[in-house]
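Person: Please comment on this record:
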Amino acid sequence: MARQFVKMLLTVIGSDSGDALLVLTELAANAVRHTYSGLPGGHIRVRVVRLNAGLIRVEVLDDGSQSLPTLRDASLSDACGRGLRLVEELASEWGWRHFGGQRCAVWALMNASALHGQKGENGDV
């Protein structure tokens, strides 16, 4: 459902949605797997903000957890642990912030060329 929502929004603003949808999928999956959002009655919220003509912020807000989002070094045999590395590769920048107590928002900035699958040479916005 979140993917369809973001795809619709990006289409409305005239951007291709491939990388942004993959980033959203990783952030939403992490929220469900690693936070209280994955428990019965839990929620996530998705926010897409067009900051300017070439920059979009994709954000997933969760119900909080006992830990913070961190990059992991997954081994070849690990079944998971690569999601934020993927986000780091596709986004111009990513991070997190607390709001409303333990709740957390994890965000990724996507530039227009990254949304079209053509990230600039140095990844600058």
